[in-house]
Amino acid sequence: MKFQIWLWVGLITCALPLFAQETTPPLSSNPIIAKSPIKPAYKVGEWFKFRIHYGIFNASYATLELTEATWNGQPAFYAKGVGRTTGLARLFFKVDDYYSSYFTKEDNRPLHFIRNINEGGYKKHLTIDFDHKQQHATVVDLKKETTGIYSTDQEVQDLISFVYYLRKHLDVDAIKKDEFVVVNLFFDSENYTFKFKFLGRETIKTKFGKVKTLKFRPYVQSGRVFRSSESISLWVSSDDNKIPLCLQADLSVGSITADLDAFKGLKNPFEIVVEE
Question: Which residues on adjacent β-strands are paired with residue 157?
């Protein structure tokens, strides 16, 4: 089984090629996405570290950091994600993954995306440039030395920018149980419709204390990687930061749990439940 530690940071990265519209139930309502940001959920300097367990093994760590930069003369956010296996897991399966995204500050539109991975000897290095007016993406495979131009869906996101897009535009006060959130993604050379269901609100235990969360169910295709189409559960803080706190996935072989291990530079207070 291809073990990608960016399952967590990219919200099931290794499943993106497996997303299939026919495996996703029909929407029960319109997507709960506000056209204007509800409240700023992040700022420059934000940094997360995630710890990922494969069964009983501490398999890997991943970090996600937000800075600012300029792309083709345009001020932009720059988000960088780095993941690698550690310890015993690295002896059996060496993974060094790098993902980054330049996206606009105003509306979170991706401008330039980089994917540079080495997973057990499988290497891939490509860049994607987005042209939202023409609705196409230029994909350069630096390893194969090829270039392709592909049509993209409206309001498309890349693998990293969509995390910030949802944190900025998801209206957590308007969403109701069993409603769906839908995002158009472009990954490698294909368009995907990423859908996940809101399961309700839960208070969970974290290393930082008890936190009120929103629980979601991303839908994926069962088979090679995931045990069923409902194999993944995701918990996001219900405060103004909308931080991904925990992910659990039942795989065809074993299971993965990912937890927020450290953070800094949050835009808003991180709300912990204080028990009297």
Answer: 185
DSSP state of 87: H
The answer to the question of residue 1 being in a domain is no
C-alpha 87/C-alpha 60 separation (Å) is: 8
Residue environment code for 177-198, b if the CB has 16+ CB neighbours within 10 A, otherwise e: eeebbebebbbbeeebebbbbb
As for how many domains the chain has, the answer is 1
Q: Is the pTM of this model over 0.90?
A: no
Nearest to 182 by CA among 211, 155, 145, 151: 155
Tracing tokens 């291990």 back to the chain, one arrives at 261
What domain range includes position 30?
A: 6-264
Residue 108 lies in a domain: yes
Query: Which residues neighbour 76 within 8 Å (Cβ) at sequence distance 6 or greater?
Result: 68, 69, 70, 102, 103, 104, 105, 111
The pLDDT of 50-55, averaged and rounded, is 82
Please name the residue ranges forming H helices in the chain: 6-9, 87-92, 161-169
Q: State how far the alpha carbon of 250 is from the alpha carbons of 3, 75, 274, in Å.
A: 13, 40, 32
Termini Cα distance of the chain:
47
Location of structure tokens 């930069």: 69
What distance lies between CA 219 and its chain's CA centroid?
A: 14
In this structure, is residue 237 part of a structural domain?
yes
- Answer yes or no: is 275 within a domain: no
In angstroms, rounded to a whole number, what is the distance separating the alpha carbons of residues 35 and 194? 18
Model confidence pLDDT, tens digit, residues 84-103: 888 777 777 788 899 999 99
Residue 157 DSSP code: B
